[in-house]
Specification:
The chain has 288 residues and is an alpha+beta fold. The protein contains nine helices and ten strands. The chain has helices at residues 2-12, 22-25, 28-65, 71-96, 101-118, 120-135, 175-179, 206-218, 254-271, and strands at 15-17, 20-21, 143-146, 149-156, 160-164, 170-174, 183-185, 191-200, 230-236, 241-250.
Length: 288
């Protein structure tokens, strides 16, 4: 019996938390204090959750109300604001229970470093995603070529960029591949300069050929007269005299305009009697 009493006494007098023994923790005063701290922590959590959600919504709405601002950028900033508020809320809760928050921050920092080293590849995509969202070399709706892939940008998040290629197939490109490579954005400028090379025979009348090419292309309403079109002989090939043609058009008309003019100029040259050469090969056979 004495052994049991001694064991119980030892347990009750052992320091458990912040220099307090179990006997101290079971007093009415301590339990009342703990209940008050618990209620305070719950109140802080609720308040932090409400405030973070409200701030996130307010920041995100800034990008949606103003057409000149990027919604994606403000959605990203809104998420950062929310998590920052929730992080401070958690520190306040821990402080309510007497936990030294400086030690917690140090532990979180050490853990973050270890996790960062283990997830270098994933974090590089996140870092690249932040750069893409902040500096916006591309945005949703742009027609681009990145990392060897060409398509329309559908979405950019912290991990990857989503494209729809020319066949409307989904293409997922890691952000590190986007930010770390050359980006060709075909949608940045409103106008583009279409370029063709048309070859005519050496026996053709070059002035007539130039007139046919110029009139055919400039008759199309998509062709722009300013800046002035460039139509000149630039190369004497092995079997043809080559005209280099450059004409400005709206970026949205570029592909259709270029394809249509390739066919129409060929048909116009045929109708004008201008010879369009093509490679030929003569085979000489010897008989025994």
């Amino acid at each position: 019996m004495d052994e049991v009493e001694n064991t119980v006494t030892s347990i009750m007098t052992t320091e458990i938390w912040q220099g307090k023994t179990l006997a101290d923790l079971l007093t009415i005063e301590f339990l009342a204090s703990a209940a008050g701290s618990l209620l305070g922590a719950v109140a802080i959590l609720l308040l932090g959750w409400i405030v973070s959600a409200w701030l996130q919504k307010r920041v995100a709405n800034l990008g949606r109300k103003n057409k000149h601002l990027d919604e994606m950028l403000f959605d990203f900033l809104a998420s950062i604001v929310r998590y920052v508020v929730l992080g401070f809320t958690l520190l306040f809760v821990l402080n309510t229970f007497g936990v030294r928050t400086t030690s917690v921050v140090a532990v979180i920092g050490a853990a973050g470093l270890a996790i960062g080293l283990a997830l270098q590849g994933a974090l590089s995509n996140v870092a690249a995603g932040v750069m893409l969202i902040l500096f916006r070399p591309i945005k949703t709706g742009d027609f681009v070529e990145v990392a060897g892939q060409m398509g329309t940008v559908k979405n950019i998040n912290l991990n990857f960029t989503e494209l729809a290629d020319l066949s409307n197939v989904q293409v997922i490109v890691p952000n590190s591949e986007v930010w770390g490579n050359i980006i060709t954005n075909y949608s940045t400028n409103d106008r583009r300069r279409a370029e063709w090379t048309f070859g005519v025979g050496y026996g053709a009348n070059l002035k007539d050929a130039e007139t046919i090419i110029r009139e055919t292309i400039m008759a199309d309403e998509r062709a722009q007269t300013e800046p002035e079109p460039f139509i000149q002989v630039t190369n004497l090939g092995g079997s043809s005299v080559d005209f280099l043609v450059r004409v400005w058009c709206n970026a949205s008309d570029y592909f259709a305009f270029k394809a249509d003019m390739t066919r129409k100029v060929k048909e116009a040259l045929d109708e004008g009697g201008v010879d369009i050469p093509f490679p030929t090969r003569t085979i000489i056979t010897q008989s025994d």
